[in-house]
Each structure stands twice: as C-alpha cells, then as structure tokens.
Design goal:
By secondary structure, the chain is mainly α. The chain contains 16 helices and two strands.
Length: 432
C-alpha cells in the first residue's frame, strides 16, 4: 500500500476512518447551517452574534480541558466516544427541528452551541488519543495525518453541500442532515474488534489532573509547539467567521458562494494532510516553515481585490495552516507516553481551541471597527510577530543552523527538541 495510506491496512482504523469521514462532512454542513441561521435568519448579519456563538462552542475547551483529559485517560475511550457522539447527534437534531419549524431564536443557538462545546471538549482528547489504540506506533503519525485528511475532505465537501441544501430546501434541512451522519461514526465504533485494539493503561489514583500539568511543565518541546498552536488557533483559524464576513460584507455574496469558499480552502487543507501522511515523522522545521507560509498567504487573502482572488488565496492559506496543525498534532502525540496521552492532548486542544472564545468576539469587534479584511490580516500579523520572537529565542538558546545541501537548496536544521519520550522519562507518581 502507498505510504500515504499505510494506516488503512488496519481493519479497525479503516472502519473508524470511513465513519469519521461521513460524520466530518455532516459536521461542516452543520457549521455552515448554524452560521447561516445566525447571520441571515436570526440577525441582520451580526458579526458579534456569530462571534458569540463560536466562542460558546469553544469556551469549554479551555475550561474543561483538565477534566476532559483525565476522563480520556481514566475511562475506556471507545465508551466515552459512543456517549459523546450520541449527545452531539441529539443536540444537532434539536437545533434542526427548531430551525425547520421556524421557532428558533438566537438564545436557542447560544444554549445549543454551549452544550455542543461541552460535549466536544470531552470528545476531542478521547478521539485524538483513541487513534493510538487502533494502530501500531510506527503508523501513528500516518494515522494522525489521515485523520486531518478526513476532516478536510469533509470541509471540502460539506460547505458546498450545505450551500446547495440551504439554497434548495432551507437551513434546518442542512442541520438535520448533519444529525444523520452521526449514525455512521457510532456504527463504526460498535463494529470495531475489541481484541485488535491496544488500549493504553488507565489512569488510577488521585492527582491525575496535576500529573498532566507537571508532565507538560517539564517538557519544553511540548510548550514550544503549544505556544505556536495557540497563536495560530486564536488569531488565524477563525475561518467560520472570516469567510462568512468576507462573503457577505465585502463581496456581497450568498449562501452558495459562502459554502464554496470553505470547499476551496479545503483543497489546500486536504493536500497538506496527504503530504503530511507521507512524512515518516514530524519535524519542527516543517512547522516553522508552514507558519511562515501562512503569514504570507493570509496577508494576500486579506488584501484580495475580488471574490475570486480571495478564493484562490484561500488555497495556500488552507495548505499552510493544515501543514502546521498536522505537524504540531503529530509531534505532540508521538512524543508522550501512552498513559499521559489523553491529558496532554486535552491541554493541546485547550490551547489550540480554547483561545477561540477570546479570539472570536475579538474578530467580530475588529470587523465592525476596522472592516472585515482585518479579521484575516490580524492572523497574519500575530503569527508573523510570534515567529520573529521564536526565531530569536531559537537562535540565542538552541542549536539552530542553516546548512546547504547544494547552492540551490538551503536547509534549516533545528536541534531544539529532545528525542521522543519513552521509558527514560517515567510518568510522575500520582499525588496522594
């Protein structure tokens, strides 16, 4: 099998990947439907209301991260995912029914967004860590990248499909279709062979949350990755808001064009995920160069003169952003011991997505104060400034050098990160 798809040799992972792909398509349909409901039905294009909805969805990632990570490490991840996916299906069904019957109000969307945020905060670390129980260690980085490919193939198909469904039938119907797709991932979880899973040891005793913080605190390599991901996630990854605002307020487009933007950007994102799947192991230099590319691409998108130039600029935005995120995710997952993976991934997701509650309202305020173009421009500025600071720190305190394999191909060699942690760094004893 091609190195790009080597994880699909594992039966359990094939089932999971198939169910997750259908669910990812539905998730993006649901996101577009929710945003369109807020922007065009419940408000007169309020960027602030859309920012509040987005913030409520992501606030639980920040607040519940320690407990969500402990749940992932203390309880069987398969059972946790069955519970969370079922709850997400119910909340999607409720919002769809409210929209179809015409009784939906803005506060309904707020409450359901918060409920989904709480459920997803528990779901994500378990889902991220569950991958390592389905595939052997030598296929883990590939499986992480294929998960990103699945997510972005959903982004490629979902928004366009949502735009068509909204235009033909209505917003509520798009939300109801999202509900149906949860059945596929639940069915996949039920069909997995338990005998072929490799469950990590479950956390026991008291002090499990503190152990997770102590583990990350003494790992400078993980802290550096999380800093870069925090800035990118907070200021650069608010695409739900930025694309909606650019489509409606700058270019005066409708639901079809709005959905098209998500699909266009997903072309770059999917390409990045598939390229990442071919790499045998993630590297810091790939992460840094991807963030440089994102800074340039985001600046071009913010200054695009027409709708179609903006759409074209979103391809490299998606390519560089997903290269950075996939590399960062794989670096974290492959550098921690299995029994700590849930807690570390929960902190990673909290840092990546937990900044959105602050970033989303800020993006809405920036749009109304300085204009929609700055909702993208602020991401380019924030990531660029952070890269300068990180580069200065690496140059002064770490072994960073530029070597030349040939006159045409300079190569940045970064020796800042320690090797993958194994038995040489035991997990701290539970606090008593």
């Amino acid at each position: 099998m091609s190195p790009t798809f080597t994880s699909l040799e594992v039966r359990n992972y094939r089932l999971w990947a198939a169910g997750a792909l259908v669910s990812n398509i539905g998730t993006w349909m649901g996101r577009v439907g929710q945003d369109w409901l807020v922007l065009t039905v419940l408000t007169a294009g309020s960027a602030t209301a859309l920012g509040v909805v987005t913030g409520l969805q992501f606030l639980p990632f920040l607040l519940l991260a320690p407990w969500a990570g402990l749940i992932a490490d203390r309880f069987p991840k398969r059972r946790t995912l069955l519970a969370t996916q079922s709850m997400l299906a119910v909340s999607s069904l409720l919002l769809g029914v409210l929209a179809v019957t015409g009784v939906a109000q803005l506060w309904h969307v707020y409450v359901i967004a918060l409920l989904q945020g709480v459920t997803t905060a528990i779901d994500n670390p378990a889902r991220q860590a569950f991958v390592s129980e389905m595939v052997p260690d030598d296929k883990l980085a590939n499986a992480v990248s294929l998960n990103s490919a699945s997510f972005n193939l959903g982004r490629l198909i979902g928004p366009g499909a949502a735009g068509l469904v909204i235009a033909w039938w209505g917003t509520g119907e798009a939300l109801l279709l999202n509900t149906v797709t949860f059945v596929f991932v639940i069915a996949a979880l039920l069909r997995l062979k338990g005998s072929e899973l490799r469950p990590a040891p479950l956390a026991r005793g008291r002090g499990g949350i503190r152990d997770g913080f102590r583990y990350v605190r003494r790992r400078g390599d993980l802290q550096l990755v999380m800093l870069l991901v925090f800035v990118l996630g907070t200021f650069g990854m608010n695409f739900q808001i930025t694309m909606a605002l650019m489509a409606t307020k700058v270019f005066d487009k409708g639901a079809g064009e709005f959905g098209l933007l998500g699909s266009v950007m997903a072309v770059g994102s999917l390409t990045a995920a598939l390229l990442s799947a071919r790499r045998k192991r993630p590297r810091l230099r790939v992460l840094l160069l991807a963030l440089v590319g994102f800074t340039v691409a985001a600046a071009l998108a913010a200054s695009a003169p027409t709708f179609w130039w903006f759409a074209v600029a979103l391809v490299p935005v998606g390519l560089t952003a997903l290269t950075a995120l996939t590399t960062a995710n794989a670096m974290v997952q492959t550098r921690v011991v299995p029994e700590m993976r849930g807690r570390v991934m929960a902190l990673y997701m909290a840092i990546f997505m937990g900044g959105t509650p602050a970033g989303a309202p800020l993006i809405g305020w920036i749009s109304e104060t300085f204009g929609p173009r700055w909702t993208i421009g602020i991401g380019a500025v924030a990531v660029g400034v952070t890269l300068v600071g990180v580069s200065v720190w690496l140059g002064r305190s770490q072994n960073v050098r530029v070597s030349y394999e040939s006159q045409r191909r300079p190569r940045v060699q970064v020796d800042a990160l320690p090797p993958v942690e194994r038995a040489t760094h035991p997990v701290p004893e539970p606090a008593r």
